[in-house]
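Appendix B.2, paired examples.
Example (i):
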Amino acid sequence: MKKIRCLIIEDEPIAQEIIETFIGRLPFLEWVAKTNNVFETYGELSRNTIDLIFATLKCRKSPGSNASNLYRNARLILHCQPH
């Protein structure tokens, strides 16, 4: 079975760890990379094929209101809330 390739966009280290643990528990998910800002995300999306993005609605280190224009390359996006 082909694994779903995942990218984590999260600026909180604890939240990154929680999402990584979740991905690691599901055999059909593969953690590819994690970033904590939009600039790193652009690089990862240009280097990797991403099927699923786990992202906060608004990273504090991101310019503008959100990074939704980055998501065109992913098939699925799961927005995470830290609270």
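Example (ii):
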Amino acid sequence: MRHDNSSILELDGKEVSVFTPSKPREKWQRKRTHVKLRNVTANHRINDAIANEDGPQTVTGRFMYGPLDMVTLTGEKVDVHIMTQPPSGEWLYLDTLVTSSSGRVSYTIPETHRLGVGVYPVKMVVRGDHTFADSYITVLPKGTEFVVFSIDGSFAASVSIMGSDPKVRAGAVDVVRHWQDLGYLIIYVTGRPDMQKQRVVAWLAQHNFPHGVVSFCDGLVHDPLRHKANFLKLLISELHLRVHAAYGSTKDVAVYSSISLSPMQIFIVGRPTKKLQQQCQFITDGYAAHLAQLKYNHRARPARNAATRMALRKGSFGLPGQSDFLGSRNHLLRTISAQPSGPGHRHERTQSQADSEQRGQRSMSVAAGCWG
């Protein structure tokens, strides 16, 4: 993703701002960077951040190129911007960081720019080529209630989100929106590595899922379920948030039980098993029937903190540059084939890079069953 001017979309799809990088492009800090980045596409990402009003407000990003993170951006400048008054579109340049040997940057917002309760777009731009990453930082008061959904376990009706367009379980979006309308923070968790963030968030956006915080693993991990549990425990113990309900597959029951949820608060998609029948509520008749039960039995009360309900964003995912991400590679190849012919080896290397990227996607699809 590269831009000189870029529109950011508000969550209802309206264009509210045109972003212009605060700093012009410069030569790379390291001479070899130019060589490393030939014919590879950017796959930068910023972790969705959650913070308290009175605690540290930190965003972290990683800057990588190529399929499966083949190339790391090392020792290069990254400019940090934040929209401090969304959705008015007032972008504030905060600082310039230098990527580590692993392509990472971390930035803590200073006291002079401390953020109040709300959801704020964050953009980090690579100075050398103006590729970028987008995300959000969500600032919440202690005691905020949330509902958590395991992406693969709750939503995907087909094997893997790495497919061309995996189907969504019928009624899943309506259930998430029901909880959002009641004022709960929506948390999406997955055991997938963060290198898949652009694709997974684009999939959520394509299917109009309500906006929420999305948590990925930091690369490929041995025990993704433990990562999910540790992330949720951090929200509860360090940020003092309160989990109200959780959705997932049978693999997620142990994760949700470990954060002290009762069986009445754990909703599992899939065939009931005797082993787990006393540990959760199985959604056996689909999400539409489950939603009707939530409404009829008044099991879904509004979130308690009225101020938080007002501050949390309504609407669906609308990260800039991601709505068409699922088709971007095909578009890239069409663009290359339509360009005036240059040195022959350039097209061959680009096609080869695209082929290897597709192989990487297939490898991720095979592994998807492990992530939950």
